[in-house]
Automatic annotation (TrEMBL):
Transmembrane segments: none annotated. Quinone reductase that provides resistance to thiol-specific stress caused by electrophilic quinones. This is FMN dependent NADH:quinone oxidoreductase. Belongs to the azoreductase type 1 family. InterPro entries: Flavodoxin_fold (IPR003680), Flavoprotein-like_sf (IPR029039), FMN-dep_NADH:Q_OxRdtase_AzoR1 (IPR050104), NADH:quinone_OxRdtase_FMN_depd (IPR023048). The lineage of its organism: Bacteria, Bacillati, Bacillota, Clostridia, Lachnospirales. The gene is azoR. Homodimer. It catalyses: 2 a quinone + NADH + H(+) = 2 a 1,4-benzosemiquinone + NAD(+); N,N-dimethyl-1,4-phenylenediamine + anthranilate + 2 NAD(+) = 2-(4-dimethylaminophenyl)diazenylbenzoate + 2 NADH + 2 H(+). Pfam families: Flavodoxin_2 (PF02525). It comes from the Bacteria. Residues 2-196 form the Flavodoxin-like fold domain. Binds 1 FMN per subunit. Its EC number is 1.6.5.-, 1.7.1.17.
Length: 201
């Protein structure tokens, strides 16, 4: 049995996120195919994730004795480490990820929990795991010159690789805000792709 951490980062009201239409469809299909797996949904806005508190950066990134799974911030790093698979769902905002997702990344990137430093450099401690990033994007950043502006998926792929997760797949719905595009068709195609990918995730 696998433990799946479903990380959601979008401020839109329920039912309004095109990204979540795709990611929720993926989760539903995954549940059908893997009924015994545990799925933990972590909606970052509902969690109220904020920026790291002033003055606590050092103690959080070198956890002191007694700072365990009940710590209000470190609990997220332990939860992340204990998962086997990750589903991340977020829109591309201003060419990158929503700030709340970056704040969450700061919560989980903790020395001694999700990575460590060695004499030869940093080593990720989340090895043997896999992740899928599902993202809705207003423009088409899939290829060509515009692809160089896409820094959301690239950042997530890089930081998760830093933590040891190199099995990383992207499912993107591009061109959602381009006038004249058939948005329903784009979202529908991404949903079908997500459902197909769920068979091997």
């Amino acid at each position: 049995m696998s433990k799946v951490l479903y990380i959601k980062a979008n401020a839109k009201e329920k039912g309004q996120s095109r990204t979540f239409k795709i990611s929720d469809s993926f989760i539903e299909e995954y549940k059908k195919l893997n009924p015994d797996d545990e799925i933990i949904t972590l909606d970052l806005y509902k969690e109220g994730v904020t920026l790291l508190p002033v003055g606590q950066l050092q103690e959080l990134h070198i956890p002191a004795p007694g700072f365990g799974r009940d710590h209000p911030i470190l609990k997220y790093a332990y939860q992340f480490l204990e998962a086997d698979k990750y589903v991340i769902a977020e829109p591309l905002w201003n060419l990158s990820i929503p700030a709340i997702l970056k704040a969450y990344i700061d919560y989980i990137s903790v020395t001694g929990i999700t990575f460590k430093y060695t004499a030869t450099g940093s080593v990720g401690l989340c090895t043997g795991k896999k992740a899928v990033n599902i993202s809705g994007r207003g423009g088409d950043y899939s290829a060509g010159p515009a692809a160089t502006f896409e820094m959301g998926d690239r950042y997530l792929r890089t930081i998760l690789g830093f933590l040891g997760i190199i099995d990383f797949t992207t499912i993107a719905a591009d061109g959602l805000d381009v006038i004249g595009n058939d948005v329903d068709a784009i979202v529908g195609a991404a949903i079908e792709k997500a459902k197909e990918f769920a068979k091997t995730f």
